[in-house]
Design brief:
The complex is a heterodimer of chains A (about 260) and B (about 170). Chain A is α+β, with helices and mostly antiparallel strands and about 260 residues long. Helices cover about 35% and strands about 15% of the residues of chain A. Chain A is globular. In chain A, about 35% of the residues are buried. Chain B is about 20% helix and about 40% strand. Classes of the chains: A alpha+beta (about 260), B alpha+beta (about 170). The interface of A and B includes residues 30, 166 and 175 of A.
Chain lengths: ~260, ~170
């Protein structure tokens, strides 16, 4: 399968990343690396999940609100702003976007309402199946080490035409991300390791995790992309659906190998 | 943050002891989680920096583990004291050793630069972790002793994947 066929309708989002700077984006700023004791798929979910921000990252939102002198509108946007939405693409790719990337569908004024001080070069979070992510100002690679051990690499994106803006994005990125980041450390603790402990709490096979939020209101688009609201677990379902297909295909294949 | 100081005058005797005592006090405040008092040690233009590479590159062009100005150091303390920094619920117990202290008068104003080795042993949720590295402190004299203009921690494993690093080093 060609890369174009694999990316399919998700391709324009990667084009958007590549076109952030006329000279192309650079990965000249080095890499942050962290590790945690949980399954790699939690970090994938976390990459395109907005819902957890209000509680897992409460301390960060409180700091931002304190600086602004008022409650920042993140939760209100998440529940009410129709530009905030989730998209599920063929082959398991998924996006949460804060505004459309369609040049014909741009608001007159970009309100920056999704700005939570993390270096927002991108108006979306994205996972290219299975383990490549884009968030804020970073490319993210998620590597399984064992069923309960994961390594993550964060490569900040540099815009060669805008050194000052790139430096600010680096500082904003560091505030939230990386092993000492205000956000990543809490994700490792809550979203990955404590969730793992919770899942291990009982040993009955009837123990399911529901990923059903918004399942009844998914809207299929003509091109096969499914659209959901910001808080819907549509990206999670898209990812796990494709993962299950491949795992099943592998179980059925004589040598256990499948080609995507 | 200067790495090499050509005109430096090495401190010895009582001068070196005073610098060492300041570093030991700083470490003791962190072990005791007396964050507000620790924050007061920093100058208004103070920097707290953990380079991502051992050599410590140029933070204007390279990502760091953290590169905090005084405002962000304050945010870090606010967060740790909020009770909502879940990476520190429960809080880590730490025990740190600062040694091999060397210090020089830099010739730039009255700024003193100190280097030291540090080893922080962290125990949390049944897991013990060692954070070892090299300190650099740039210290400016102040009525009460010194203010920290820069604290740099060059971890020996800065370029390896690190776990939850929500404690202060």
């Amino acid at each position: 399968m060609s890369l174009e066929d694999y990316l399919e309708t998700a391709g324009p989002y990667l084009d958007y990343v590549a076109d952030l700077d006329p000279a192309g984006i650079a990965f000249s700023a080095g890499v942050q690396q962290y590790k945690f004791e949980a399954n790699w798929k939690f970090q994938v979910e976390n990459t395109i999940d907005i819902y957890h921000v209000a509680f897992t990252h409460k301390s960060w939102l409180d700091i931002l609100s304190d600086k602004a002198g008022k409650r920042i509108p993140f939760v209100r946007n998440m529940t009410q702003n129709e530009e905030w939405r989730t998209l599920a693409f063929p082959n398991g790719h998924a996006v949460h976007e804060y505004r459309s990337i369609d040049p014909a569908d741009q608001p007159e004024e970009i309100d920056g309402g999704h700005d939570v001080g993390i270096g927002e070069l991108l108006p979306f979070n994205m996972v290219i199946f299975p383990n490549l992510g884009f968030v804020g100002a970073q490319l993210r690679i998620i590597t399984p080490i064992a069923v309960d051990r994961t390594r993550v690499e964060l490569y900040p994106m540099v815009l060669p035409s805008d050194p000052a803006g790139s430096e600010k994005a680096l500082r904003d990125h560091e505030a939230f991300y990386g092993p000492a980041g205000f956000g990543s450390a809490d994700d490792m603790e809550v979203a990955f390791e404590r969730v793992t402990q919770g899942l291990e709490a009982t040993a009955t096979p009837q123990d399911w995790v529901l990923i059903a939020r918004g399942a009844k209101r998914e809207e299929p688009r003509e091109d096969g992309v499914r659209i959901g609201r910001s808080t819907d677990e549509l990206p999670h379902r898209s990812f796990y659906g494709r993962w299950r297909e491949l795992i099943r295909a592998g179980a059925d294949a004589p040598d256990g190998m499948v080609q995507p | 943050v200067s790495a090499t100081i050509p005109d430096a005058r090495p401190l010895t005797g009582a001068e070196l002891e005073a610098v060492s005592a300041f570093l030991f006090h700083e470490a003791a405040l962190l072990d005791a989680r007396r964050y507000a008092e620790w924050l007061e040690l920093f100058a208004a233009d103070g920097i707290y920096w953990l380079p991502q590479s051992r050599e410590g590159g140029d933070p204007s062009r390279e990502v760091s583990i953290l590169y905090d100005d005084r405002t962000r150091i304050g945010d870090r303390v606010t967060r740790l004291e909020s009770g909502d920094a879940f990476a520190q619920v429960p809080e880590s117990e730490t025990c740190r050793v600062v040694g091999n202290v060397q210090a020089s008068a830099t010739g730039e104003g009255d700024v003193v630069t100190a280097t030291a080795n540090e080893m922080v042993v962290e125990f949390r949720r049944g897991r013990q972790t060692v954070h070892a590295g090299r300190y650099q402190f740039d210290l400016a004299p102040d009525a009460a002793g010194w203010k920290i203009k820069a604290k740099v921690v060059r971890l020996v494993n800065a370029d390896a994947p690190l776990g939850n690093l929500s404690i202060l080093l």
